[in-house]
C-alpha cells in the first residue's frame, strides 16, 4: 500500500513538473518571439537612420552649392552633432548569432533552476 501511494505521489509530481515545463517553454518561446520582433524593428530603424543620414548629407551638399552660388553664408555642419548621439560608439556593434540548440540548453537550464529552487524552498 505504501509503495502504491508513493508511486501515485511521484506520478502526480511528474505530471506537475511536465505542466510547469510546458509553461516555462511557452514563456521562453514568447520571449524569443519578442526578441525577434524587436531585432527586426531595430534593423528597420537602423536602415531609416542610414537613409536619413545620407539624405542629410546630400541636402548639406546642396546647401553648400547654394551658398557658393548665391553668396549667402549658411551654417552647415559636416560633422554629426555628438550631443544628439552621446552614447554612439566609434565602431558598429556586431550581433552574436545564436544557434537553435542554444535555446534548448537555455530551456533545460531554466527548468533545472526552477526545479532546484522549488526543491530548495519546499
From TrEMBL:
Q: What is this protein called?
A: Ocs element-binding factor 1
Q: Which residues form a coiled coil?
A: 7-34
According to its UniProt record, where is this protein located?
A: Nucleus
Q: Which GO terms describe its biological process?
A: positive regulation of DNA-templated transcription
Q: Give TM segment ranges.
A: 102-121
Q: Which UniProt keywords apply?
A: Coiled coil, DNA-binding, Membrane, Nucleus, Transcription, Transcription regulation, Transmembrane, Transmembrane helix
Annotated InterPro entries: bZIP_plant_GBF1
Tell me the domain of life: Eukaryota
Renumbered to this chain, the signal peptide range is none
A cellular component annotation (GO) from this entry: nucleus
Task: Please give the CDD domains that the UniProt record associates with this protein.
Answer: bZIP_plant_GBF1
Where it mainly occurs, coarsely classed, is nucleus
PANTHER family, A to Z: BZIP TRANSCRIPTION FACTOR 44, BZIP TRANSCRIPTION FACTOR 53
Does the keyword DNA-binding belong to this entry? Answer: yes
Recorded GO molecular functions are: DNA-binding transcription factor activity; transcription cis-regulatory region binding
UniProt keyword Disulfide bond, yes or no:
no
Amino acid at each position: 500500500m505504501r509503495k502504491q501511494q508513493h508511486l501515485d505521489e511521484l506520478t502526480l509530481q511528474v505530471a506537475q513538473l511536465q505542466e510547469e515545463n510546458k509553461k516555462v517553454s511557452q514563456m521562453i518561446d514568447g520571449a524569443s518571439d519578442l526578441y525577434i520582433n524587436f531585432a527586426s524593428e531595430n534593423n528597420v530603424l537602423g536602415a531609416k537612420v542610414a537613409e536619413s543620414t545620407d539624405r542629410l548629407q546630400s541636402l548639406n551638399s546642396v546647401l553648400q552649392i547654394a551658398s557658393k552660388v548665391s553668396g549667402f553664408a549658411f551654417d552647415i555642419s559636416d560633422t554629426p552633432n555628438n550631443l544628439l548621439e552621446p552614447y554612439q560608439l566609434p565602431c558598429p556593434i556586431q550581433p552574436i548569432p545564436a544557434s537553435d540548440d542554444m535555446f534548448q540548453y537555455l530551456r533545460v537550464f531554466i527548468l533545472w533552476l526552477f526545479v532546484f529552487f522549488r526543491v530548495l524552498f519546499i
